[in-house]
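Researcher: Please generate the 3D structure of the following complex. Treat every line as part of one assembly.
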Amino acid sequence: MRAVVVDYGMGNLGSLLALLDRLGHEATVWRAGPPPARLDLLILPGVGSMAVAYQQLVARELLDPLGALYRQGVPTLGICLGLQLFFEASEEGNGRGLGWIPGRVVALKARRTPHMGWNTVRTRPHPLFAGLRPDAAFYFVHSYRVDPRDAQVVLGDTEYEGEWFPSVVSAPPLVGVQFHPELSGPVGRRWLENFWREVG
Amino acid sequence: MLLPRIIPCLDVRHGRVVKGIRFLDLKDSGDPVELAAYYASSGADEVVWLDIVATVEDLKLATDLIAQARRKVDVPMTVGGGIRSLDHVEALLEAGADKVSINTYAVQNPAIISEVARRWGSQCMVVAIDARREGDHYQVYTHGGRQRTDWELGAWLKAAEESGAGEFLLTSMDRDGTQAGYDLPMLRFARERVRRPIIASGGAGTVAHLAEALRDGHDALLLASILHQGTLTVPGIKEALRQEGVLVRWPIL
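Model: Done. Output below.
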């Protein structure tokens, strides 16, 4: 499978590309314009503000090709800001999203933000979590959370300062995670392996 | 539930670890790449890499090593030391650092905080602060603790937060190197003043000190000399914390 990682200028890709390399997966970086010719799987990473991210997608002429790939049903993994971009809009700076999943992106209610560090995911048994203990922890860093209109898309959720938020979302061909598999040690590695098997 | 972060700190100079781990079974415990990879694979929740870069050659060496470390380190890496420009920040992030830590230059030129936050997001802007008790308050120092500033700690925390600091790395100069336990009153003071995560630094000597700080609500702890002496290891610390009833990320799979 040929994976393409979208680089739209929101956060560095070093840790993600290193993990893909360790897993033996071929990955191409797509920075602007038309997508690479061979493409089986898309990864949309990123950290930061959704408003800036959307502007970047527009400026790099990525918006239309991304929409076309989505309509073709190309499996797509959104990580952190990538997950948030799947939704319609963010209350942060009136940011727009790709609008592929109904719902909004809203601020965490927590006193202390960002939600930064290792946290667990509450999920029903699912192949994406095969081989992981129920208390397996992933690395998070974010101040906003997704708020899907349809609760059915939520595959797992996570608690921070008493608030539960969706940390894994599935709406084929989209899978989105609020955590960073690429910074989550062996747990993140196994999760990504599971993801690869699921879409492969 | 958010788990505590146990964060080893590597002190690097000219490409070598200044204080390597004694008795550790590494090919070369003075090699920061190998040491960072060892920490990550043995349960460190993040790694902080402090490298005082003074020259262009130093920067080239540092970014090469960070890029090498990135290929092996699968937990977040914060890199700091001598940062004085956005170009420097960009070089470190492109090499694979997840966050940058700025201390002295943030005091000299606080605009760098907002510039980094605006360009790369506040989550990657760690403001490092050295402070010590003076009478009825805490005073901020720079230049590795050699220079007193006009900033009172609470005021500087507030100003840095408003500029866009996403996290603080707060070292108690009164406790640093003493191994007498973290400066809990200072940490408590800082936590009440800002809404950003704070990494506690200075004073860790025993697992009991870590447990004490965690129970007091300080959930990100920097470890330096306690690991360098080789008497404690990250797995040993996590196992001991778990036995004391503190939830930690352990085992790591």
